[in-house]
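User: Okay, second chain of the day. Same drill as before: sequence in, structure tokens out.
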Amino acid sequence: MAEDKILHSVCKWTFHAGKGGFVPADIRPEWDAQNFGTTDFIRLVKERIVPRLPEYIELGVELHYDNEYNENNAEDIADTLVDSSLYLAMITPGAHLHFAYGGIASLDSQERKAAERYGERSVELAYDPLRKAWHPDLDKAPALVIWNGSFGYDIATVYIKQMYQNLKESVAKLCRFEQSLGGDLYFALEPKPNEGHPALLIPTVASALLFWRRLEEEFGISRAKKGLNKEIGHSEMIGLDHIHDTVEELDGEAMLHTHLNSQGYNDGIILGGPAKYDIDHGVRINGMNIAIAGLMQQAGYRRWKGHDMQVRPYDNVEQGIDRVVRSILSWEACDKAAGELDVDQLQSHLANRDTAKAEDMMREAVVRAYKFFHEMVD
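Assistant: Same drill. Structure tokens below.
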């Protein structure tokens, strides 16, 4: 296994027949959930995505329990991953599919108990039988992403504080449970301001950093292997600065997984942006992503770069696959442009207040990134 492999991961939930709602739910019938399971997805990644990527990229997959991996298919998934030379990069409990009143934060004790057991089962399967599909380097072991779509609320009462306390106690319990199985997973909270409730309990990067500190102070939960899943699009949704979010994540040594995507609006081509729903475009080539890539390079980030994205409502299967490939290559282009940026010259311009020249350097980096992208894409 080459040491210099760059890790990217692809999400099962990207590959669906159609979003539904105000757009077709069946535009890609080949990816209907009844006929296109997780092992089919893994084989698609191996056969139709891997060949289109540079050889220095190593791929993993990301899965929800229990609609994408579960007690019935986990063994087959593990075997298919091993046979395909792909890895399990991330798991997450799909609690939002089952628990509508707060999940592990719920004020309904029965829902909370059921949600806690649901999370434990997602971890058990990651250790057995999925363990053989982990990367052999435990520094690249899967992340257990805790997305807070189920623990939210829509009524303003003083009991929101109790929901937050329930959340802390339940996550602490899950951390202890995972430790009893080996303690090798990385726990990553994924901040999001809203969806699937109008308000969620971990809305921002700062909220997640504080949450882990409180678990350490209140419950003695070590912050080792505890941190965040960086999601560029979620920062954009709330109108925050995703570059500064990156600084906070890296400064806290808390970036344990990434979801590289975009809500749009920041490249002058696609639409979206703050206050919009979760559009989940793939990676865009722009100055902000080059800056983020540079920050991650400086910090020595070597874990998984996930692509939590949706193909467009009008895409067919071929176009959908192409979107995923382009997202991966767009990030690689940004990363390469960041690596070639003359940071000493940039610092000199900024120190001398020659900000127009600094802008010129970043603009030229964007142009180079587009050039790199077109050299890589089919």
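The two ends are 26 Å apart (CA to CA).

User: Thanks, on to the next one.
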